[in-house]
# Entry
Amino acid sequence: MNQRREERLQIPALGEFYDDLLDIDAELSSRTRVQQAQSLLSEKLNERVPDIKQRVKYLADKRGVTSDQIWSEILAKRGKETAFSEGAIVDKPLDGA
# Structure
């Protein structure tokens, strides 16, 4: 995918109830809707990190490769550059958990 096209995430309408909740949550947090939505998504993804790492490790073990190779393969499919494929691990996002 074109990385430039992916710079701004677009999500479908939340529905009236969740849209109102986002407005109220943003106001109570003194943030814009966009800032609050970004914060909520980041928080939820952070909660899922252990599960995501476990799923990547499962795929790596099943395929007989490293978790870094799977991580790199997934990011490459999304058109993202990664140092994992060259063996340089900057943050050890998978094996350090």
Remarks:
- The chain is about 55% helix and 0% strand.
- Confidence is low (pLDDT under 50) at residues 88-97.
